[in-house]
């Protein structure tokens, strides 16, 4: 196994107090050797994931999320608060894709002797990547909550929706989320040695999950009874559309939990049992958690396209126009 892949798969749990990404120990463990699925001295199975897979998934995810952003900007029918929030969620996913592509390119170039990066420069680049990933975590969770709240207002306050969720308020929410995300990322870099950083991230993750769960349960249990009170055909159609949006966001939340859950479990185990043999075995497959995070960024745009006919149509037009331009 090459040294850089080893560094991905053997991400030292003590280093994760400092970094989300494996860049910090990128050049430190060059003497370690392992093969695919081979057990190490602790009896743990380590699964090798090629760097090329990281790069391929990152590039696909990057292209997908750029298309979603372009489609939202291009189609005026998508200029509504819900699609603004979905567009911002795509930007959050894009941060993960960009950080992964940049990191993997540097690793591959260094592996083939095509690039030498000064350790100090590597440290700065590592901080930038960590900040991007941390911003993605916070902003993704925040926008999932924002979209859930938007769907809730649409279903239960349908007649007042346009007065409650105005474009100005949507923009204000978006600005507030990004400011909070960037600020928290900077604090993460400044106080990376403090366990409180991990505690705050895990707590925020749990709070947002509970918030979304409460809203979704309320929506799905009471929406049917609420729809009976709306007798106009047009409003019934709006109710159906709103529930479809709620179902879409439920799928997004489920995918987020599946893809980011192991990473947050990793953080919890670092705090609770950093020296436990079982926990150390869990730490050894950190590269799998990274792949899941990248897959979340790749899957989200597919969910948008599948669940929204308007967005799917615009994406098809963008792809066809790009293809025709190349002919």
Distance between the termini: 41 Å
> What's the CATH superfamily, by name?
Rhodopsin 7-helix transmembrane proteins
Q: Percent of residues in beta strands? A: under 5%
So, CATH architecture?
Up-down Bundle
**What's the CATH topology name?**
Rhopdopsin 7-helix transmembrane proteins
**Helix coverage percent:** over 70%
Oligomer: single chain
**If you compute it from the alpha carbons, what radius of gyration comes out, rounded to the nearest whole angstrom?**
22 Å
Residue-averaged pLDDT: 76
In sequence order, what are the helices and strands, one letter per element? HHHHHHHHHHH
- Helix and strand composition category: mainly alpha
Biggest sheet statistics: none
List unreliable stretches of 5+ residues. 1-19, 22-38, 231-238
- Principal-axis shape: globular
CATH class: Mainly Alpha
> Helical stretch count?
11
Number of spatially distinct domains: 1
Extended strand count? 0
